[in-house]
Automatic annotation (TrEMBL):
GO terms for cellular component: DNA polymerase III complex. This is DNA polymerase III subunit delta. It comes from Acaryochloris thomasi RCC1774. It catalyses: DNA(n) + a 2'-deoxyribonucleoside 5'-triphosphate = DNA(n+1) + diphosphate. The keyword Cell membrane does not apply.
Length: 338
């Protein structure tokens, strides 16, 4: 069935999938006849636009190649009129094998609606949600897959460095891999972490330095690092994501230690730390902190994330929250030194 349902906030990966489908089914010479891109609005015209898309999808292609109709953010799942659902029920089973209907959403569509249930039964569904920044293994797999697509050979330590340096920024990942691919043409061996470090700015590492400064309660250093990151146009949401990832790991380590667990492999698995040998050093990091403090810091970081997504001034809200979090982490020292 040539029906596709793509959704997710990782717009770069979603658009790459659309481009791949575009290249697969369309003949460039007949593009103007066989390709329709319809951005569905939320106005009264939305139903008409979707009906138009369904009708176009029912039309056999002209000339060579096949037909592709792309509906962007259709209102299915939000405004399911009986006419639109009936038209969808009629269209899906009758689509010509040479016509392809693609529906994309910026966020997950309402799976309880009749129209979306119908689509999920008959469409090829793909989700393009950013990988959570603390899912280290998934980030590493993402780097391996992208490197394979671009045609770059990377050593294991280079893969890990890229995952740490870039996080879940897919667009930047492919940009850096394309740059590395040009460099790799000069040698046949896989690129090492040393070579990657020279070519890829490790902004995530600077965010990890910020996490360390907060953990130690070094307010002045933390504010300087924030200013440096913003000066190189590091996205504030990416900074926050790295901090969430690091403090989440520290919290898991502390909780496991307070529960009496001492097996580094067990702790590593619970905290999703790929290398159990890192656990010793992470234990030292949280030695002077208590789990309620780490919970409060993580809560504060999630509040920061919400504030940034609501459009508040990134510099002001970052500086204010960083000062607050540093003060939270200074509490043990104050308690031990009245």
């Amino acid at each position: 069935m040539p029906v596709y349902l793509y959704w997710g906030e990782d717009h770069y990966r979603l658009n790459r999938a659309v481009e791949a489908l575009h290249a697969q089914v369309l003949d460039p010479a007949w593009l103007s006849f066989n390709y329709d891109k319809i951005e569905v609005g939320s106005s009264a015209d939305a139903a008409t636009q979707m009906m138009q898309g369904f009708n176009q999808a029912m039309t056999p292609p002209f000339g060579a190649g096949q037909r592709l109709v792309w509906l962007i953010n259709p209102t299915l799942g939000r405004q399911d009129s009986e006419d639109v659902v009936s038209e969808l029920e009629r269209t899906l089973p009758a689509l010509p094998e040479t016509s392809h209907l693609l529906l994309t959403y910026a966020s997950k569509p309402n799976g309880r609606s009749k129209a979306i249930k119908l689509l999920q039964k008959q469409a090829q569904t793909q989700e393009f949600t950013p990988i959570p920044p603390w899912k280290t293994q998934l980030l590493i797999q993402s780097v391996k897959q992208a490197a394979s697509e671009v045609g770059v050979k990377l050593s294991a330590d280079a893969v890990e460095l890229l995952a740490d340096s870039i996080g879940n920024d897919t667009q930047r990942l492919y940009c850096e891999l394309n740059k590395l691919q040009l460099y790799a043409q000069q040698q046949s061996a896989a690129l090492t972490a040393e070579a990657v470090a020279k070519l890829v700015p490790a902004t995530t590492q600077n965010s990890l330095q910020l996490a360390d400064a907060i953990r130690q309660g070094h307010t002045s250093q933390a504010l300087t690092l924030v200013a440096d990151l913003l000066a190189i146009s590091e996205p504030s949401l990416k900074i926050t994501a790295t901090l969430v990832r690091q403090f989440r790991t520290w919290l898991w380590i502390k909780l496991m230690l307070e529960a009496g667990e001492r097996d580094e492999r067990v702790i590593a698995k619970a905290a999703e730390v790929r290398n159990p040998k890192r656990i010793y050093f992470l234990q030292q990091d949280v030695k002077s902190l208590r789990s309620p403090q780490l919970r409060q810091v993580l809560k504060g970081l999630l509040e920061l994330d919400v504030s940034l997504k609501q459009g508040q001034n990134s510099t002001t809200v970052l500086q204010t929250k960083i000062i607050e979090l540093c003060q939270l982490c200074q509490m043990p020292a104050r308690e031990h030194h009245p």
